[in-house]
Amino acid sequence: MNANTPRPISRVERYDTVVIGGGQAGLAVGYHLAKQDADFLILESAPRVGHSWRRRWDSLRLFTPASRSSLPGMPFPAARGHLPDKDEVADYLERYAQRFDLPVRTNSPVASLRWDGSRYVIDTGAIRYEARNVVVATGPSQKPNIPAISSALAPKIHQIHSNDYTNPHALPDGPVLVVGAGNAGAQIALEVSRFRRVTLAGARTGHLGRTFLGKDIYWWLWPLLTRLTSDTWAGRLLRRRAAHDPLVGITEADFTSAGVERRGRVTDVRHGLAVADDAAMDVATVIWCTGFAPDYRWIQLPMDLDRGRPRTRRGVVAGSPGLYFVGLRFLHNLTSALLGGVGADAEYIARHIRAAEGE
Q1: C-alpha separations of 98 from 37, 73, 94, 282, 311 in Å
Q2: 233-275 pLDDT tens trace
Q3: What fold is seen in the domain 144-205+244-288?
């Protein structure tokens, strides 16, 4: 048997519900399913809960405070205004799964999801799972999005995606170009600028102060973010237009004081160098902070997609009864993909599953 030969199935397991993904969305769904005493299993591809957070860059912090970063049933263990770092989030998720004794099976990457005529079939290699319901909780995006023009850059330029960035000391010597001026790009650019010359290229997304009238900005924003749902005309309009989040707690003055050069979008490559504002930038490293793209090729089911994203009614897939999504951006409102907002959608899906089984 060579490395490309699929492993033979050793056993088949059946559950009422299988949740694919053991991150914040999957755990929140598990919490509500457990409250219903449901028969379910959570599949996590990584070796431990919280792995996707642990592997992010060293200095990463949430832009939502601890007071707005809790999953249902367990407050985030930190002062309300504290901005949790990535390891604190990972530890919290791991303790959450342990506290509620959630049935998470790690090291279980899903190769495919299909329908056999009577049940959903989830293939993970040696084990095949069958279920009446499947909740896909793999996050809003799964695949690093790197623009096609990256292939035209000079071979001497070191290129990485923010998904693989750890800290400035892991980069080659020389100036750095950070492409993408969202919260991730801004944080990374400011950090790297402490050690070398940095250019930050990307559209300006706007700015929110960290506080307003003595309170964290999310104290003011959270009620609005949760009320503008996809059930309201204003929420639907916001969903269509909210392509980028504003920078939180970072201003243009911060870039200036740190010596970060600001440019517009990278539009071309000239002589192997990235071009923005009609100027070629001679750098040693390019860090692509250009986000992630959805990748549902492993789902072998008929689904309507909108720019790669499944069309649902608050996570319920109309054409495939028993198939659900949780943790997508603006699944119901602007907090749907956030640590502190996913619980409401998870509860809705758990209730829907219970109601459907009672029909």
Answers
A1: 17, 13, 6, 49, 33
A2: 666 666 666 656 788 889 999 999 999 999 999 999 999 999 9
A3: FAD/NAD(P)-binding domain (3.50.50)
User: Which CATH architecture describes the domain 11-142+294-357?
Assistant: 3-Layer(bba) Sandwich (3.50)
Residue linked to tokens 């970063």:
69
3-state SS string for the chain: CCCCCCCCCCEEEEEEEEEECCCHHHHHHHHHHHHCCCCEEEECCCCCCCHHHHCCCCCCECCCCHHHCCECCECCCCCCCCCCEHHHHHHHHHHHHHHCCCCEECCCCCCEEEECCCCEEEECCCEEEEEEEEEECCCCCCEECCCHHHHHCCCCCEEEEHHHCCCHHHCCCCCEEEECCCHHHHHHHHHHCCCCCEEEECCCCCEECCEECCEEHHHHHHHHHHHCCCCCHHHHHHHHHCCCCCEECCCHHHHHHHCCEEECCEEEEECCEEEECCEEECCCEEEECCCEECCCCCECCCCCEECCEECCECCECCCCCCEEECCCCCCCCCCCCCCCCHHHHHHHHHHHHHHHHCC
Per the model's pLDDT, the better-predicted residue between 240 and 191 turns out to be 191
pTM above 0.85, yes or no: yes
Give me the helix-helix angle, 86-99 and 24-35, nearest 10°: 20
Q: How far apart are the first and last CA of the chain?
A: 47
Q: Which is nearest to 188 in space by CA: 303, 287, 308?
A: 287
Of the pLDDT bands very low, low, confident and very high (cuts 50, 70, 90), residue 1 is very low
What's the pLDDT at 7? 58
